Amino acid sequence: MVPATRSELTKILTLPSVWIVTGIILALHVLVQLQPAKLLADAVADITPAGTIEVFIGEPQPATEAILGLLAGGSLQMGLFLPVLAAVIAGQEFRSQQLGLTVLAMPRTVRMLAAKLLATALYVLVVAILIAGISTAFMYVAVKAWNPGLLLTSEAFLGHGRFITFAVLFCLTAFAITTVARNTLTGIIVTVALIAITMSQALAGAAPDLDALLPLSAARNLMLDPGINDLTASREHGLLVLIGWAAVTAVGAAITLSKRDAR
């Protein structure tokens, strides 16, 4: 399995499209973080002696919880673009029609898919860590005169861990969906549709239990503070939902690869 995973990871690292998409995502994250940087620094400077902050005028919140929530939320916001990266990785062999060669090298479908999923997870893991690092760097600039040690607390690292877990699991889901569809664009469209349903709040009010089964809602439930945000389920539920999406779609991808001709 290690040689197969190494081979798949090498494929990923030699794809120009993967580097381009990765660069765009990281550059966009920097740009997005730059926009509210001054407003956040001003809000931190005005933290009251009682420890409250007004990130939004007229909405005082406990400063520690609010800042950690913004740290997690900033990374989550950019995590929505990561499935595009996974779809590009999954679709490259279908675009180049090289899947048949891969099957000849690894005729066992499950082993081949497992190597692809593991290689994708490793690559996304690194990108997610970079996103979390960028979020932390910008937050450090905002809080360095107040409490920079907050960014080194267990709560902060747990927040990063939850984001990275979401990023990897959601990208594995996007990878598997693209593999089933055998088309990068279709994989992206399906993933964006799943995100859009949550963003539109179409189910959150009418059917919160159903909404909690969607991957982005599960990510919100996993990452955000229930004391500050209106969530639809617990963190444990969110984690299980994300694992379930990754597992079910991976099984679907394995069945698809085993039933269709490799091309």
TrEMBL record:
Residue ranges crossing the lipid bilayer per the database entry: 12-32, 66-90, 117-143, 163-181, 188-207, 239-257
Keyword terms, alphabetized: Membrane, Transmembrane, Transmembrane helix
Keyword flag Transmembrane: yes
UniProt-recorded name of the protein: ABC transporter permease
Organism lineage: Bacteria, Bacillati, Actinomycetota, Actinomycetes, Streptosporangiales
